[in-house]
Structures
1.
Amino acid sequence: MSMAELLIDFIREHRSLTILLILGPALIYLAIYFFAPFLITILYSIGFIGRRGVITWKVTIEFYRQAFRGVYLKVFYNSIVLAAITTLGTLVMSYPLAYYLALKAPKKWKNTLVIGIIVPYWVSFLLRTYALMNILTMLGQMFTYEAVVIGMVYDYLPFMILPLYASLEKLDKSLLEASYTLGASPLKTFLKVTLPLSKPGIASGTILVFVPAIGEFVVPVMLGGASVPTIGVITWNLFLKFHNWWRGAALSILYIAVVLAALIIYVKKVGELEI
Amino acid sequence: MVEKTDYIASKVENMVILRDIVKKFGKVVASDHVNMEIKRNEFFSLLGPSGSGKTTLLRIIAGLEKPDSGIVILDGRDVTNLPPYKRNIGMVFQHLALFPHMTVYDNIAYGLKIRKLSNSEVKKRVYDMLELVKMPPEIFANRKPGQLSGGQQQRVAIARALVTEPAVLLLDEPLGALDLKIRQHMMLELKRIQRTVGTTFIYVTHDQGEALVMSDRIAVIREGRVEQVGTPSEVYEKPKTKFVASFIGEANFIDGIVKEEGISTSIGPIKVSRTHNLLGKRVVVSIRPERIRIGEEARFLENSYEGKIREVVYKGDTLIVMVTLDGIGLKVSIPSTHPESRRLDINTRTWVGWNAGDEAGVFEV
């Protein structure tokens, strides 16, 4: 028997071991960089880890109680409103564009146009935000709520355009023609056929924009200054300004719970998703 | 004045009139000065190979394509510049185009709801339609298109297109995706539905069998032009061009030159009924395989030749015999019950023949 045959036989006989070997690196990576920090955050939030990282062997809900204070709830509320405005903004800006790209643009230009939308986003996010700062300063809009909204809509735009484009692109154009022949005007056709059939794209885009937008930190800080405190900004302050890791951790876990709950409700309501 | 009256009479008699339609896609001429009249209540087929421009004509009637020039008259009205949603048409698409997010009921009700009919009227008409296409509403009304078989989807698509009582029903190769058995069944169903509702059907197909079975009249289309319009028996028995003869049914073609006494060919002279003043011209004689007789009975016909049997193919009801004579291959089709059929052995000599007038046509080349 050759080495190769021996190896194949070994793999056949130890299937579960082989799978473990293949998945191993990814599992180790996730364990070190994702599960462990997450666990540590939970342990901080319940006071299990004390000052200087010493284990206290105690559990308390005190930090969660603190995180439920009105001031934080208000920030939570503001973050969700900002995320909702951002999502709506990207949706309103993206839909006509995605519609044009998927259904109206000349075939030979399609890919070029799609790449044209993506390419600017190859530039680092930070660099683009700095560039925006210059523009907003020129317009006299810096450190306002509007500046934050403009920045966030701009940053999240491709996350809305691409899923919308993907779902509209799949739309069978003869469905629209069928609607016309049945007497429906283009507007009615849009409302009764195009829009309902692009729902999975709208749902995916909404989630891809809304969820990270709630926790957004960089844009509110850079473009809003202190004027737009979001949950991301407050958490950052708790950890790095006030060194209150326990309350920061509780706030983080609460944030994850809220987003997860919202996501589950949304997915159940909308049904299938396309990402 | 006479012309004007004729024009009005034509509008009354014909559901669709195409006048000098030209449509180009880039350099490709899809419709090349097409004129056509489609009568009220007839089952009219546009037959041609793929890329012949038959679907373009259908889409021009529907209003889904705008002709570069020409006039479309639908139900006595010039609709050339009207969008499809103002034309009162029904259309069954090649891939059916049922709305996947709607139930069977909502698909069929779509056009009625657009026309703002009352709920009770919508329900009555949708149910009547489901009955017509033999889809019991209590079983199918609430299903989604994805839960139906190909043949059932077909029926829903037809019901959806007919429920608004359109002036014409346009069908774009709707049976192409079905397998043979269901296709044959649906052909008869379409014919039955057309007789029941009496709507004008315009049917696009590349399948000559479908066109022959269902149509009252057929227009044979080639490279954007109308080659011939006629009843199925006219286009089959009396094709006007070599293309029509070859596209519809099967035909043998023999090259020759027209002489006083008949057509001179490499297998000998062929007598035909008429030569259409083609004296001295190079022509091709077309003869259908089932018109050629074989064996002793062929020996004393007006055109009679001796040849060698190359191949015998048994096809159940018929027997296809390939005979070569002086380098030319002839395809002969006889009923398999024919007494001669048992004596046809490969590589034996036999007679083939037919009478003048049996030919499908003589075409100039």
2.
Amino acid sequence: MDTPVIARWLAHAVEAAGTSHLERGTPCQDAALAAAGPRAAVAVLCDGAGSAPLSHEGARAVSTALRAWLPVHHRRLCALPLPDARAAITLEAQRALLERAAALGVEVRALACTLAFASVDGDSALVGNLGDGVVGGLSGGESTTLLGPMRGEFANETVFVTSRHAAEHLQLAQLPAATVDGFALMSDGAAFSLVDARTGHLARALHHLAAWCATLQPSDVADALSTSLVPLLRSRTRDDVSVALLCHVRLDLDTLLTRPRRLQQAVLGVGSALGLRNRLRVLAARLAQPEASARRVGIEVGLSTRAARGHLDALASLIVPVGDRASDVGGQQPTVRASA
Amino acid sequence: MTAPTLTLDDLIINHTPRVPVAICLDVSGSMAGQPIAELAQGVHTLFAELYDNALARASADVAVVTFGARIDKIVDFGPVQRKPFVQMLADGLTPMGTTVNYALDLLEARKQDYKAAGVSYYQPWLILMTDGAPTDDITAAVRRTAAMASAHKLLVIPVGVGQAADLGVLSRFSPQQRPLRLRGLAFTPFFRWLSASIERVSNSTVGTEFRPFDASNARASWAL
């Protein structure tokens, strides 16, 4: 491919109560959040401890806090020695639990939960896992477990954010974002059917979902997660089943134009049909004349210079020039450089 | 456009985590007559109930060892059968120490099998049921079970049958769970309770503190 591509991270998350919770009318103890922008993305998944009465509150508190905190501190964390980064992340998660416990008037251990996350900012990615969840990576049609579950000898033992020496148990890894097409976070209930326990390979379902992120409108991917994947996962376990996906979508203009309008809007970051039409016209003009000024582009597409500049600014973070594409280093398996 | 669908073929089939259970049953001469018949019926009930529960059937991994004139592994670990061949003959003494050591060795070997096959497992269970007192040296067996139970590496469920059962001896095997005495010959309620307990642990989620030996729960069905 010798044309520039438009690249953007897209995020999806589903949290679903297991059949045991549904039958008892108790809440889902998982919390999964994900958000994405042109060059940055974050996903956090927490699984409340079965023995902790308010662990769903803990999972929600930690995921919400880390969802906001990780993007702000991503660069700093990547620059820190890993032990320091582990300590900082664990401290932030524990701070969120302490605040929530104080608000609820309960001991913090009542909110015990696990933590898994993936954070991307530009060319660097940071993944972490504390507990029995799984962080997987997809790349070039291949997939692997980046950070596996941390269990004791027995199946129902693991470590939590509230555990002693939690920071030392936090598995943490930095890797070049360019080596990964997507990340998948899974609670242990979901991982039971989505990760091969022996090889670490991820299930075909996750490959399909990642591919659909680049071909279907986002609402269809969300529907596939909640109405197709979740029932399948529930048929295999009574545990909660939650998944968060970050997918790096890379499309050249011709391919983008064949995609559903809602996907075009999501990739180009516009909300309206008119906005999409104008952004596509500006994009075509920019690709045809990379050095053209905003005024020139505006004249060509019939927009004011100010409007053209707005579109060009938005597109600047989406257009990946030839020779600078993530796919140029594709085929590499994502490798974990360090972990706990 | 409607959302695409996934199928079960798009998922991965992993082994269900196992609950290894070794059941040691006293079949010494004093169990002759109705007690051994009731015991055999209870064991059949256990396997039938495990078999009829899909989750328990996938998780339970049960071996049954009898001790009397001989120490016999009458049911080996493996897939649960609805009606395994169970033959019990009440005869002989009560070699409890040797039997418990043998059962612990079986459990240890089974754990190694799991590890080799990449199968996760729950804390092993040892059920020890007797109507009397040991006739061999139990020192080593007591030391092993007590150490494992204290380290949460083994769950011991000691049960006495009849008034002659020495609960004091049984308690030495289980420093954390006090032994209970079976109500009459309520073997079938006991094994029904055991099946339900296995099903519950196989259904437990990570972090769940599982306490199968709830005395009030046991007294409601099978214990004095």
3.
Amino acid sequence: MLVIRRRAGEAILIAGGIEIEVLETTSGRVKLGIRAPREIAVLRKEVQMTGLQNLTAARHLPAELLDGALVKLGRKFPSNPGNTR
Amino acid sequence: MPRTETKYFGVIDFDAGSAIEFPAGLPGFDTRRHFLALEDVARSPVIFLQSLDEPQLCFLLLPVLAIDPSYRLHVSPDDLLVLELDPARQPEIGADVMCMAIVAIAGEGHPTANLLAPLVVNPATGRAVQAIRDDGAYGCRHPLMTETRETPCS
């Protein structure tokens, strides 16, 4: 991994017209400004990870596997009143 | 009364007012915005989040407090606005919102829950959001079996 130290107000350039500027640093947080062509997707990594987890959650559970899966869950979660609407 | 096909429960009638709307969709399913939260007493506390747009799409959820009784919400102001709640105040689970985690079971693997991005529902309006945390306090593959270790998300 390329490591570059930057201060607030400084930027880095990535080929293809992408610019990432450090706007502000506070305790434990960095505020970034990103300029990129419209066709370049910019995404927080957690959003991508959650999308992949959602796809796994939806895909890998055909109906016939459900009860086996629930048995696994039941070992840890004995029945108790649900709190959904 | 509207009627829908479901993945696990055949064709069911439902109360239109009980539908849940994710105005922004769910990551990976951006166009799936309308769901029903179904419960099956024999499988409590599992909640089935059935898509009204795609019958074969149904997520298994668990209340986050069933997974971790000390779970603390951290919802961004933007997500609170989607929920039509005060963006300046964290809602309370049970009082203001319901909060569930999506369970994933990959193949023969152990079930995990996404505590990084819980589903938060405002029961007063039926609006919901998958509230992705930005504080790194919880993982997206929280093991539901104590004997397993959490694997990195990426």
4.
Amino acid sequence: MADVNITVDGKKVTAPAGTLLIEACKSVGIEVPSFCYYPNLSLQGACRMCLVKVEKMPKLQTACTTVISEGMIAITDSDEVRQARKGMVELLLGNHPLDCPVCDAGGECELQDMTFSYGAAESKYMEPKNHKEEQQWSPVVYFDRPRCILCYRCVRVCGEGMDVWALGVQNRGVGSIIAPNKEDHLECEECGMCIDICPVGALTSGAYRYKTRPWEMNHVGTTCAHCADGCKTTLGVRRSETGMEIVRGDNRDKSGINGDFLCIKGRYAFDFANREDRFVQPLIRKDGQLAPSTWEEAFELIGKRFKEAREQHGGQAIGVVGSNRTTNEENYLLQKFARVVLQTNNIDHHRTADFPAFAAALRGKPESTASMRDVFNAPAILLIGNDPTEQHPLMAWQIRNNVRLHRAKLYVVNSRDIKLRRQATGFLRIPKGAEGRFAAFLNGDDSVAENLRPVAGTGADAGESRATTQTTPAGFRDQLRSEQNLIIIFGAEIRGGDIASVVKFGSGIAGAKFLYLADYANSRGAADMGLYPDLLPGYHPIADSGKFHQEWGGVPQTPGLTLPEMVDSARSGKLKALYVVGTNPVGRFDIDPFVFSQSFVVVQDMFLTETASLADVVLPAANAYEKSGTFTNTCGDLQLVKKAAEVSGSKSDFEMIVRIADAMGADVHKLVPFGRGTAADMGQSRGAQSGEADRHSVWLEAHGLEPKMSPFDPMAILDEIQRLVPGYEVSRMNLLAGNDQRTSLVGRASGAAQNPELIAPANDHLFSSGTLGRYSRTLNSVMENHDQQPAEF
Amino acid sequence: MRFSDQFETRFAEMITHYPTKRPVLVPTLLYAQDEAGYLSDEVIEEIAERLELTALDVRNVISYYSMLSTKPRGKYNVQVCTNIACMLRGGEELLEHCEKKLGIAHKGTTPDGQFSLEEVECIGACSWAPAVQVNYDFHENLTTEKMDRVLEGYAKKGAA
């Protein structure tokens, strides 16, 4: 759009036509205060805090609803404007309690800040304040009516942003109140966005309220440990008896790929970390019982037994199961440890999507995967299968708000009436399990069109979607073909050869990009890092182990056993040892626990899962909030995982793997390339020159040159990942700054790891999250409240 | 939920007047209240569904307008104006008289379900103050005696 020139407080400002005055002011560093204005939400003009003088207009104007026009002259700081702001604050405080010291929002309250900046110390209003008791609207949302200043942000974010519409405004004038949709409680997705967006202490979080003060916590922005979307969550931590305790999760740091968004899991479901039944010391099975032991005893025993198994029966007698929730560095290290130290390719993980087939289908198209940010900006999106509202809340947010703010076209193909159909331009309901047939149909196979007709009686609910005409599969396909820069998002319903069909169809569309949905925080990372019996990191087939072979000094040349094959091998007594890191295959795949009675089983976990309960040695593991490293989300966005909390008595999986290798007598230097880099005087860490140490270390770390003094430093393995795994050559500087870095999927595999039957989608919904969800009290209480079956323990 | 044919005809016509469905909400609520006496949960659900709104949304609008009620009201809703003109000409005395006579207070309903009473703001009949509106009918230049006759008239009508 054409640019418009205006003058604000004597400063010349140029901004595109259509820009709001408040935004134009912001762009040159002039702050216009406001409560109700919130970027990307509809305009409200309710709080009147942003009143400014615009020349030639008789009265003060609200900067948040005034669109700039050529030659406009605005004044944001004059006696008149100051008087108006002061008056507004005075009115807002008319009924607002003046008990900041006991309010949950004290210290991070916008009204408090505004009163300091613009308000009056004295008030003309002597009337008694209206008081109402606090209400609990859900296990996680509380409402304190007198504190509400009626900015309607919560109403708009819930409706426009989340498409939930659970909050409204009732009555009018001074009697107006924010009301939940079920008279005295909420029936909603429990995302907590209303709490985060509330400028005051009216909406508070059941998980955090009245526990501490914002200035008493450290705030660590890290990547969420739950689903595969990779939201940035800010964890508020404070010292506790056992280390550092997480008290709050929220969205203070809006620099993440999720922007304003965070769902219930990122916000509240950190509580698994604080559970008292966590393992805090190693356990060794003695006389049939798991008994506490020391770390030394445990590592010594594991080292001895693993070494025995390898030397007496060979690497094929040992199995390793990795995790979807450990970091890239840990996953890479684990498979390297398996291949180099245990000398086995028997390594697998719980596969939730067919990434090897995806990588193979994208061969020669390294830049054709879409990032999470792309989903918010694409002009058109095709979604096949999955239900992002439940399984990928951020993905759903990106799609929904792209449609709302950019008028993107959304095409949905699903066997159910998923909620996103309400944003869809085209919705095609297909029979259950027909996603693969649809992929073939996209690719031109018209013979399957008949089989795509919806089952009688469950027809497409056209009334609720934006689709105006009944869509036929052929018409739907024609519409798709006419799109450009389409992002094709598909769930794990599409596997194996069907992925190639989808990619082939997309290749006929200019600028098309692809996005494959896996389920856990680092499912993509586990696949990228080679937790496969027949694939090395970066989807290198075992037969093509060239550079890994050179670097690691020998990789076993025969593909190893998949997880079900390991179970078979254990059943026949051939699997002598099993090493399970951060996963629960016995519970997840309902494996007969007696199968492993002949195997020496080592489990690294936080809780006594079905797998841990049959282990010979259990090592207490730290979770993703208690260690550093990187996660790759399902789109391939690489993000830093920062250590926020600590529970004494646990160790990171990284450290434990290294310690086991050491106990086996392996050369730890070869496993983790530490001890490289420079050693130098890094300057003063205290006093006048204290910043010097930081400047040295930031630059050195960004260039991978900081001294990695310890074999437990994940950054040493990140060096190797960046060197050897194609697609991971991203900017370290940006990564360390907390920005998402896009990796590319450079497929080399073909015909390998094509076992679509091994893919077991997690089928989590909004309130469940695999093992972590089972141990989250908040998620369980919300599920009970929604009359859903709480997770089994 | 069944509405009369007249309601359905009106509704079908109104809905064609606007590009979206929401604008017909307020008249629809009023007509529905005229038929059903008040806006029950059932009526709210029905209207929300017809206009593709949430029930919460419909309730929000109802709560804004004092003429719309979600609670049952008497057959005759006596609305006594006590705004400035009526007040100066005895509106408040008239309200007090009605309260005594009917034995109910503001927003109350008689046990037999015949009358409810409401104190309202200006009803636009200042020239003939004090004025009272019963359902859609106006009664003007009232005194307590005249008011008694008005109420008796409705009581008879209601008993018939």
